[in-house]
Amino acid sequence: MSYQTLIDGLEDIITSGELAKFTKKDVSQGDYTLLNESHYYYAILDYGGFRRERDVLGGGWSITWTIIAMIGVLYQNDKQVNDDMRDLRDEFITRVSENPGLGVNAFEAAVLSGEETPEIIEVGGRPISLEQINIEMTEVTNFTEAD
Q1: What is the CATH number of the domain that holds 128?
Q2: pLDDT the model gives residue 108
Q3: Which phi and psi angles does 116 have, rounded to 5°?
Q4: At 29, phi and psi to the nearest 5?
Q5: Could you give the 3-state DSSP secondary structure of residue 67?
Q6: By three-state DSSP, how is residue 108 classified?
Q7: Residue 107 and residue 101: Cα distance in Å, rounded?
Q8: pLDDT at 72
Q9: Number of folded domains in the chain?
Q10: What burial class does residue 33 get, using C-beta atoms within 10 Å of its C-beta: 0-12 exposed, 13-18 middle, 19+ buried?
Protein backbone atom coordinates (compact mmCIF):
# COMPACT_ATOMS: atom_id res chain seq x y z
CA MET A 1 0.00 0.00 0.00
CA SER A 2 1.10 3.59 -0.39
CA TYR A 3 0.33 7.05 0.88
CA GLN A 4 -0.75 8.00 -2.64
CA THR A 5 -3.44 5.30 -2.63
CA LEU A 6 -4.78 6.56 0.70
CA ILE A 7 -4.70 10.24 -0.21
CA ASP A 8 -6.43 9.51 -3.55
CA GLY A 9 -9.12 7.57 -1.65
CA LEU A 10 -9.61 10.39 0.86
CA GLU A 11 -9.87 12.99 -1.91
CA ASP A 12 -12.52 10.93 -3.69
CA ILE A 13 -14.55 10.54 -0.49
CA ILE A 14 -14.59 14.23 0.44
CA THR A 15 -15.35 15.47 -3.10
CA SER A 16 -17.96 12.92 -4.19
CA GLY A 17 -21.71 13.36 -4.10
CA GLU A 18 -23.91 16.33 -4.77
CA LEU A 19 -23.83 17.47 -1.12
CA ALA A 20 -20.02 17.58 -0.91
CA LYS A 21 -18.66 20.92 0.30
CA PHE A 22 -15.31 20.32 -1.44
CA THR A 23 -14.86 20.21 -5.21
CA LYS A 24 -11.73 18.78 -6.84
CA LYS A 25 -10.51 22.39 -7.30
CA ASP A 26 -10.70 22.97 -3.51
CA VAL A 27 -8.39 20.03 -2.72
CA SER A 28 -4.66 19.66 -3.21
CA GLN A 29 -2.29 16.87 -2.38
CA GLY A 30 0.55 18.42 -0.42
CA ASP A 31 0.47 21.70 -2.36
CA TYR A 32 -0.05 24.54 0.10
CA THR A 33 -0.03 27.12 -2.69
CA LEU A 34 -3.74 26.27 -2.99
CA LEU A 35 -4.17 28.79 -0.16
CA ASN A 36 -3.09 31.54 -2.59
CA GLU A 37 -6.11 30.82 -4.79
CA SER A 38 -9.56 32.32 -4.27
CA HIS A 39 -11.59 29.47 -2.84
CA TYR A 40 -14.18 29.45 -0.11
CA TYR A 41 -13.31 25.93 1.11
CA TYR A 42 -9.84 24.43 1.27
CA ALA A 43 -8.47 20.94 1.89
CA ILE A 44 -4.77 20.11 1.73
CA LEU A 45 -4.02 16.41 2.10
CA ASP A 46 -0.50 15.45 3.04
CA TYR A 47 1.32 12.44 4.40
CA GLY A 48 2.27 12.24 8.06
CA GLY A 49 4.09 9.65 10.11
CA PHE A 50 3.75 5.88 10.10
CA ARG A 51 4.17 3.03 12.55
CA ARG A 52 4.99 -0.61 11.81
CA GLU A 53 4.18 -3.02 14.61
CA ARG A 54 4.36 -6.75 15.07
CA ASP A 55 1.12 -8.54 15.92
CA VAL A 56 2.30 -10.80 18.72
CA LEU A 57 -0.81 -12.98 18.71
CA GLY A 58 -1.30 -13.26 14.95
CA GLY A 59 2.35 -13.36 13.95
CA GLY A 60 1.93 -10.76 11.20
CA TRP A 61 2.55 -7.05 11.02
CA SER A 62 0.42 -3.95 10.96
CA ILE A 63 1.32 -0.59 9.50
CA THR A 64 -0.47 2.55 10.65
CA TRP A 65 -0.30 5.37 8.12
CA THR A 66 -1.15 8.96 9.06
CA ILE A 67 -2.68 11.42 6.63
CA ILE A 68 -2.75 15.08 7.61
CA ALA A 69 -5.77 17.00 6.33
CA MET A 70 -5.72 20.77 6.64
CA ILE A 71 -9.29 21.91 6.10
CA GLY A 72 -10.30 25.51 5.96
CA VAL A 73 -12.73 28.20 5.01
CA LEU A 74 -12.29 31.81 3.93
CA TYR A 75 -12.78 34.06 6.96
CA GLN A 76 -15.46 36.73 6.66
CA ASN A 77 -16.65 37.22 10.25
CA ASP A 78 -16.58 35.34 13.55
CA LYS A 79 -20.11 33.90 13.36
CA GLN A 80 -19.73 32.80 9.74
CA VAL A 81 -16.36 31.15 10.24
CA ASN A 82 -17.48 29.41 13.42
CA ASP A 83 -20.59 28.00 11.74
CA ASP A 84 -18.87 27.08 8.47
CA MET A 85 -15.87 25.43 10.15
CA ARG A 86 -18.23 23.45 12.41
CA ASP A 87 -20.22 22.26 9.39
CA LEU A 88 -17.08 21.53 7.37
CA ARG A 89 -15.55 19.53 10.21
CA ASP A 90 -18.81 17.61 10.75
CA GLU A 91 -19.05 16.70 7.07
CA PHE A 92 -15.39 15.67 6.89
CA ILE A 93 -15.68 13.43 9.97
CA THR A 94 -18.95 11.92 8.73
CA ARG A 95 -17.61 11.14 5.27
CA VAL A 96 -14.47 9.47 6.63
CA SER A 97 -16.47 7.61 9.30
CA GLU A 98 -18.88 6.27 6.68
CA ASN A 99 -15.92 5.09 4.55
CA PRO A 100 -13.44 3.83 7.15
CA GLY A 101 -11.21 2.06 4.63
CA LEU A 102 -11.12 5.12 2.33
CA GLY A 103 -12.18 2.83 -0.49
CA VAL A 104 -9.21 0.50 0.05
CA ASN A 105 -10.11 -2.98 1.31
CA ALA A 106 -6.78 -3.69 3.02
CA PHE A 107 -7.45 -1.22 5.83
CA GLU A 108 -9.28 -1.87 9.06
CA ALA A 109 -10.50 1.59 9.99
CA ALA A 110 -9.83 5.29 10.08
CA VAL A 111 -9.17 6.98 13.40
CA LEU A 112 -9.54 10.74 13.37
CA SER A 113 -8.16 13.33 15.73
CA GLY A 114 -8.32 17.10 15.47
CA GLU A 115 -7.03 20.26 17.02
CA GLU A 116 -9.12 22.08 19.61
CA THR A 117 -9.51 25.38 17.74
CA PRO A 118 -9.00 26.34 14.11
CA GLU A 119 -6.20 28.80 13.46
CA ILE A 120 -6.72 31.96 11.40
CA ILE A 121 -3.86 32.71 9.04
CA GLU A 122 -3.48 35.41 6.40
CA VAL A 123 -2.44 34.45 2.89
CA GLY A 124 -2.26 37.07 0.16
CA GLY A 125 -4.22 39.52 2.29
CA ARG A 126 -7.08 37.05 2.82
CA PRO A 127 -7.75 35.53 6.24
CA ILE A 128 -8.36 31.78 6.19
CA SER A 129 -9.48 29.64 9.12
CA LEU A 130 -7.54 26.34 9.05
CA GLU A 131 -7.83 23.22 11.15
CA GLN A 132 -5.66 20.11 11.14
CA ILE A 133 -7.33 16.70 11.22
CA ASN A 134 -5.18 13.57 11.44
CA ILE A 135 -6.46 10.34 9.92
CA GLU A 136 -4.74 7.13 10.99
CA MET A 137 -5.27 4.08 8.76
CA THR A 138 -4.20 0.64 9.92
CA GLU A 139 -3.17 -1.92 7.32
CA VAL A 140 -2.86 -5.48 8.58
CA THR A 141 -0.59 -7.76 6.63
CA ASN A 142 -0.23 -11.52 6.78
CA PHE A 143 3.50 -11.40 6.25
CA THR A 144 5.72 -12.96 8.87
CA GLU A 145 9.47 -12.74 9.18
CA ALA A 146 9.77 -16.06 7.36
CA ASP A 147 8.05 -14.54 4.32
Answers
A1: 3.30.2000.30
A2: 66
A3: -70, -45
A4: -105, 90
A5: strand
A6: strand
A7: 5
A8: 92
A9: 1
A10: exposed
